[in-house]
Amino acid sequence: MSDSLWSGYQALITNGAKEDLEVCARADRYAAALLAAFIREVSTDRGLLECMIDEGFSDDRVDSIARVRSLQVKRINAYRAKLISIRNWRLIFIVDRPSVRIGLFAVMPRADDYENNRSLWDRIEREFDDCGFTRY
């Protein structure tokens, strides 16, 4: 992917993702601190931000990026990020190419069955619409 195509992407973090991070902090302060540092880096590094929506990407920090199928079927371009040093938490990113934005919409415990979590998907869809993201 060319830098010119991606260099203008704006990062955003939804209120739901911020609340999830607070839940994480209550459960595991160390993981929350690592996640917060990673999220800060992603929000300022456009190259790393692009990688959060690159299915199959991995490096020395990111174990894998995969599509979130249960949101993809709703025409929401969502991806799940697994991090190497924070094994018990997952990040859900959504890209809106027409508005040139990538958002962090959720921070989920690994143990949760997020593909079948109806209340989570309802929250994500509500924030997706509130942010004015476009279904593809």
Polypeptide structure, described:
The protein is α+β, with helices and mostly antiparallel strands and about 140 residues long. The protein has one domain (about 5-130): YaeB-like fold. The protein has 6 helices and 5 strands, in the order H-E-H-H-H-E-H-E-E-E-H. It has helices spanning about 5, 15-25, 30-45, 45-50, 70, 120-130, and strands spanning about 10-15, 60-65, 80-85, 90-95, 100-110. The protein has a 5-stranded mixed β-sheet, with helices on both faces. A hairpin with a 4-residue loop joins strand 4 and strand 5. Helix 2 runs antiparallel to helix 3 (about 30-45). The longest helix is centred in the first third of the chain and has 16 residues, at about 30-45. The two termini are about 20 Å apart.
Low-confidence blocks of residues: 1-6
What's the CATH C level?
Alpha Beta
Q: What is the annotated CATH architecture?
A: 2-Layer Sandwich
SS elements, strand count: 5
Number of domains: 1
Rounded to the nearest angstrom, the radius of gyration is 14 Å
The CATH topology assignment is: YaeB-like fold
Average pLDDT works out at 92
- Element string (H = helix, E = strand): HEHHHEHEEEH
Shape: globular
Keywords:
single chain; 136 residues; alpha+beta; YaeB-like fold; 5 strands; disordered N terminus
Brief account:
The protein is of the alpha+beta class and 136 residues long. The chain contains 6 helices and 5 strands, in the order αβαααβαβββα. It has one domain: RelE-like (YaeB-like fold, 2-Layer Sandwich), CATH 3.30.2310.
